[in-house]
Amino acid sequence: MRLDIHNSDIPLLCRACEARHKGICGALDPKQLQQLGRQTGRREVAAGTELVAAGVQTDGYANILSGIVKLSKLMADGRQQIVGLQFAPDFVGRPFAASSDVSAEAASTVRICTFPRSALEDMVRQSPGLEHRLHEQALRELDDAREWMMTLGQKSAAEKVATFLLLLSRHVDPLVEGYSDHLEIPLKRSDIADFLGLTVETVSRNLTQLRKAGVLTIQKNRLVTVNDFSLLETAAGL
């Protein structure tokens, strides 16, 4: 009965949130959710929309509710490198930092829950659990970066492409535990090549080889059905 009372105190917007329990807001109690909820807003942004500009002071943060965000660094000569991908329920932004050294851009249509920087930082001071969640995400991103360094440095081109598909299928739907066998590749082939350190032709050739081997089915170049995850894991060198 007490659980029902608490649930009724949770803002309706938060109760309907697909990402709340696994995201940072899962650390907040109903009263704190109400406090933060009064300053939040939801919006949908199109692919290609910049969410965070590198080196520019930010006045807000966001939780990803659905879709994929790509993190990029720009070199002095204009070359760009995709250094990471974010999925629901990841947190976009760097708390207590004036700016970020990477830009964040919607790689697909993305739904986000936004809140002012001051609101989150006030909430962090009130809630050790929220600070702990943010710390956990930072460590998880560090682990992911180290894992991806190994992928880029040691794996073959075929293994890189298969690993990329496993990464997408594991994160494309926050409500699914494990892998999703149906996914839409949100990145252009040139972005995939950039992320994997390969050429566009090499990415396309290895996707075709996986399709011909029956590991996956590809429709319209973007819609992928994974037919056999054990074979895909083997192809990824796992």
TrEMBL record:
Asked whether the UniProt record includes DNA-binding among its keywords, one would answer yes
Which keywords has UniProt assigned to this entry? DNA-binding, Transcription, Transcription regulation
User: What Gene Ontology molecular function terms does this protein carry?
Assistant: DNA binding; DNA-binding transcription factor activity
- Listed SMART domains: cNMP, HTH_CRP
Per UniProt, residues of the HTH crp-type domain are 155-230
Q: Which InterPro entries match?
A: cNMP-bd_dom, cNMP-bd_dom_sf, Env_Response_Regulators, HTH_CRP, RmlC-like_jellyroll, WH-like_DNA-bd_sf, WH_DNA-bd_sf
Q: What cellular-component terms does GO give this entry?
A: cytosol
Entry keyword annotation includes Transcription regulation: yes
- Spell out the PANTHER family in the cross-references: CRP FAMILY TRANSCRIPTIONAL REGULATORY PROTEIN (PTHR24567), FUMARATE AND NITRATE REDUCTION REGULATORY PROTEIN (PTHR24567:SF75)
Protein name per its UniProtKB record = CRP/FNR family transcriptional regulator, anaerobic regulatory protein
Q: What is the phylogenetic placement of the source species in the record? A: Bacteria, Pseudomonadati, Pseudomonadota, Alphaproteobacteria, Rhodobacterales
